[in-house]
Design brief:
By secondary structure, this protein is an alpha/beta fold. It has seven helices and ten strands.
Length: 240
C-alpha cells in the first residue's frame, strides 16, 4: 500500500534527551491518527518534524511517495498546522484574516475559497466581525479555516481543544469529524482521551519519545480505554 505520509526512524534530540526516539509509521490518504501521551512525551516535537518547523537529527519523512528535504520549504504548502495558538489578527475581521493568509499563499479564486472555509467551520454569520470580539472557540474554528485554506493533503492538529469549554469543544469536534472526508490525512495530538479516540481511525501512544502503542482504534477495548492507556504508558514498551 502506498502511504501519503511515512516517518522512518525519526530522531530529534535536545542535548542528551531524545524527544523523538526512532519513531516510524505510515498513514494512507484519509487516515486520522490520534497521538496520545503524557506531558513531555515528545508529541509536539514529532508534529514539528512532520510539519517542517524542526529538522530531524536522523531519519526520513516521505510525503506523496517523495522523500522530503527539511532544507526545502515548498513541500510545506501540502501541510496545514493548527495549534492552541491561533495566529490570527484581532483587529481584522474573520474574512479579512483568511484573505490575508490566502494572499500569502497566492491562492486563485480567493474569495470563493474564503467563503467556503468560513462555511465549513460555521462562521459565515460572523464573517465581518473583528476577531478580537470572538470567543476562544470561535477563534479556534477560524484558525482551523486558516489551516485548511490552501487545501492541504496533510493536516496536523496540536492540542486543538486546549482552553475550550464543553460547548466549544463540541462545535470544534463536529468540524473535525467533517475533516474525515477521505481526502485529507490528519494527525491529532491531544490530552483529551475521549475526544481523541472518538475521532481516530488509528491511535498511537507516545512516551519518552517512543511509540509504546500503534494500532487501529478497534484494538483498544471499549469501556477500558483509560486503563489501556495508563498501562501502556506505565509499561513503556515500544511498539513492535
Amino acid at each position: 500500500m502506498t502511504h501519503l505520509l511515512e516517518a522512518r526512524d525519526l530522531v530529534r534530540r535536545y542535548g542528551p534527551i531524545r524527544a523523538v526516539d526512532g519513531i516510524s509509521f505510515g498513514l494512507s490518504e484519509g487516515d486520522l491518527l490520534t497521538v496520545l501521551g503524557p506531558n513531555g512525551a515528545g508529541k509536539t516535537t514529532l508534529l514539528g518534524l512532520l510539519g517542517g518547523s524542526l529538522k530531524p537529527h536522523s531519519g526520513e519523512i516521505w510525503l506523496n511517495a517523495e522523500r522530503r528535504n527539511p532544507a526545502e520549504t515548498e513541500w510545506r504548502r501540502q501541510i496545514g498546522v493548527l495549534s492552541h495558538r491561533t495566529f490570527l489578527y484581532g483587529a481584522l475581521t474573520a474574512r479579512e484574516n483568511l484573505s490575508f493568509y490566502g494572499r500569502l499563499y497566492d491562492l486563485p479564486d480567493l474569495h470563493a475559497l474564503v467563503e467556503a472555509r468560513l462555511a465549513e467551520v460555521g462562521l459565515r454569520p460572523a464573517a465581518d466581525r473583528r476577531v478580537q470580539g470572538f470567543s476562544r472557540g470561535m477563534r479556534q474554528r477560524l484558525a482551523l479555516a486558516r489551516t485548511l485554506l490552501h487545501d492541504p493533503s496533510l493536516v496536523l492538529l496540536d492540542e486543538p481543544f486546549t482552553g475550550l469549554d464543553v460547548h466549544a469543544s463540541s462545535l470544534l469536534r463536529e468540524v473535525l469529524v467533517r475533516l474525515k472526508d477521505g481526502r485529507r490525512t490528519v494527525i491529532l495530538v491531544t490530552h483529551n482521551l475521549s475526544e481523541g479516540l472518538s475521532l481516530a481511525d488509528r491511535v498511537a501512544i507516545q512516551t519518552e519519545g517512543r511509540f509504546v502503542f500503534l494500532g487501529n482504534r478497534a484494538e483498544i477495548p471499549t469501556g477500558d480505554e483509560e486503563k489501556f492507556y495508563r498501562e501502556r504508558v506505565e509499561e513503556g514498551t515500544p511498539a513492535s
